[in-house]
Amino acid sequence: MEGGDIYQAPQCSSATIEDMSDAELRRYHSKDELCILAVGWFYLYLGSVLCSLTGLSMWLYWLSPCLLFMVSTFVSVLGGILFIIIGFGLRNFDAWARPPAYVASVVAMCLFPMGTLAGGACLVLLIRHASEEMFTEKYRVAVMTQEYGARKYGWLGASLGILTGLSIWLVFFLLHYFYGYSLR
Description:
By secondary structure, this protein is mainly alpha-helical. The chain is built from seven helices and no strands.
């Protein structure tokens, strides 16, 4: 409260979303916006991890050809691409990204152990903070026209996901190379 009486009741505004300026709209949804950006960042991370693990699946299929490794390669590529697309959609506040994000968080809960906890957290954040008002064209334009630092770092989630996937791939490769470890 800038210079006002601290005991004064807060002033309620009866303005609707359509009547708000871009800055007021962003201020009104500031916490929700950060939650949606975080969920989008996580989806970028998870999608890039899944795509990176495709190399591991292909390598395992090359070591011992079986249907399981072929299916895991296909699922890794498909799931990774879908998570990346949904992540970019959430970070851009595209209306089409909201329904698949709910489904993707339920699917992420099946990816034990990291996905179980993070998928549940994403589902809770989406239910609490992903209101329809945030995925309107007016809000999307307000976000895209104003300078905002957190939106610029979407590449960080994808980069960390690729590094994580490559690290997992490297661990399996070193286990196989030095210790003869195999998943057969």
